[in-house]
């Protein structure tokens, strides 16, 4: 059917540029901004060459998966950084809408229940299903001559396949039994994003975004280990704060708020404890 925006996204002024094949959609978005594009503009493809993840890590690509980047211009970069949480929520809601009756295991311990989310959010930027990574989200920015910032919100989703040999479990919609193609998923994603962006409201609604995010949070209340620039911080995942930092409670009862790091649950989090 080809890529298209949802009616509410079109009505809200979003535009769409689709590619049969592209380099990094985030890189294209930032280049568009340097050329004067202000967005909001979605750039999408099912064949991305040169994709990347956090901290410059390569993002393995399989044709038929979805790469979607939203370009917008912001004035407050610290506030705009919380849009990564909006992106995770939007993808979770889009998947819920497309697969309302799917029977899959959920939760870090594989348990399930009637009120538990099937698509969980792992701080800061992953979407999980059945304890495996389904999607990664990458925010990149570039300062513009007028002092504003171009923000590229990149979302890579394993639709038809997932890479093997990774240091963490990964999955795809096809492996989970979902018969959803990239075009249909993007349509639902553009719809969910538009609604949640209205809630976010230039940061004024971050408290509600935080509440919705925590309702999908993977590992909430469980032991975690966070790698912060080579230093391991251990404790229990308690919440995310008003700035969406990862808050853990340590063995002494104190709390630590972490702005950036790699989170590990389960046996990895418990390793090294006496």
UniProtKB/TrEMBL annotation:
Keyword field: Biotin, Ligase
The lineage's top-level taxon is Bacteria
- EC category name: ligase
Gene Ontology cellular-component terms listed: cytoplasm
List the Pfam families: BPL_C (PF02237), BPL_LplA_LipB (PF03099)
Spell out the SUPFAM superfamilies in the cross-references. Answer: C-terminal domain of transcriptional repressors, Class II aaRS and biotin synthetases
> What GO MF terms are annotated?
biotin--[biotin carboxyl-carrier protein] ligase activity
* InterPro entries referenced in this protein's UniProt entry, alphabetically: aa-tRNA-synth_II/BPL/LPL, BPL_C, BPL_LPL_catalytic, Transcriptional_repressor_C
Q: Where is the Biotin protein ligase C-terminal domain?
A: 220-265
Q: What is its EC number?
A: 6.3.4.15
- Reaction(s) catalysed (UniProt annotation): biotin + L-lysyl-[protein] + ATP = N(6)-biotinyl-L-lysyl-[protein] + AMP + diphosphate + H(+)
- Give every BPL/LPL catalytic domain span: 20-158
Under what name is this protein listed? Answer: biotin--[biotin carboxyl-carrier protein] ligase
